[in-house]
Design goal:
This protein is of the alpha/beta class. It is built from 10 helices and 5 strands; from the N terminus they run H-H-H-H-H-H-E-H-E-H-E-H-E-E-H. GO terms for molecular function: carbohydrate derivative binding; DNA binding; DNA-binding transcription factor activity.
């Protein structure tokens, strides 16, 4: 999101995105109560995002909803199930709106220049890393992937300057991934980080950060199993773009 929002404004905007299907039916007072923010914050946030105010934002949402038949198949779906379905749409839409084309181009160029590529990931992000590993190997790259904490830390100390490190991390704060990024940075190795946390510790040691949007809603609150959909979207765009550029050249 290009507009700079305060912490409370960003919280409100995230809340709106998570409950977008309810917004057309909510007055500014009701939204204020539900989101636990002031009406002034609501007006200020919507104005920062290009609307004349909350009424304008809400009306445009209603109009768009009436004109959009794309999701008519969801009209009879249970409200909570519909919210769960739309949550994925919001994550993808917001991730696409946040993507920096210049950063993608830079990352594509960096992949093209690097013969040796190391991919580090932990947890659910390992599945994305594994897919990237196979695709990069099919594209002729000498690529290694690791999810083992000790191997990540040890290997990152030995990576040569000409190589490239790709780190996939939802919050960008996983201890061994941060240490791996720091080691690579100290050796002058280029690092691309795919994350949803722009201010993460890993980002400080990354030459390029490809940022996605993380939904605040989790249906498994007791476990760290949040959706990696934004990271998946970015990784696919990155590798598809690399293939396109390679074929053109």
């Amino acid at each position: 999101m290009t507009t700079k929002l305060s912490t409370s404004e960003q919280y409100l905007w995230d809340y709106i995105q998570e409950n977008l299907t309810d917004i057309p039916d909510l007055s500014i007072v009701k939204l204020s109560e539900d989101a636990n923010v002031s009406t002034a914050t609501i007006v200020r946030t919507t104005k920062k995002l290009g609307y004349s105010g909350y009424t304008d934002f809400r009306q445009q949402l209603i109009t768009k909803s009436k004109n959009n038949s794309q999701y008519k198949n969801l009209e009879k779906v249970d409200h909570d199930i519909k919210q769960a379905i739309m949550k994925n749409k919001y994550e993808v839409d917001n991730t696409l709106s946040m993507l920096n084309v210049g950063s993608i181009e830079d990352a594509v160029q960096k992949i093209g220049e690097s013969n040796d590529i190391y991919i580090f990931a932990r947890g659910f992000s390992e599945f994305i890393a594994q897919e990237m590993l196979v695709k990069l190997q099919l594209l002729g790259k000498n690529c290694v992937m690791s999810s083992d904490p000790n191997i990540i830390v040890t290997m990152s100390k030995r990576i040569k300057r000409e190589a490239l490190v790709i780190i996939i991390s939802l919050n960008g704060e996983t201890k061994e991934l941060v240490e791996g990024a720091k080691n690579a940075f100290g050796n002058g190795v280029s690092t691309i980080t795919i994350t949803t946390n722009e201010k993460s510790s890993i980002a400080k040691y990354s030459e390029m950060v490809l940022l996605g949007y993380k939904s605040q809603t989790s249906y498994f609150p007791d476990y760290e199993v949040r959706s990696r959909l934004p990271l998946q979207v970015i990784s696919r765009i990155l590798l598809d773009s690399y293939v396109i550029r390679t074929q053109k050249n």
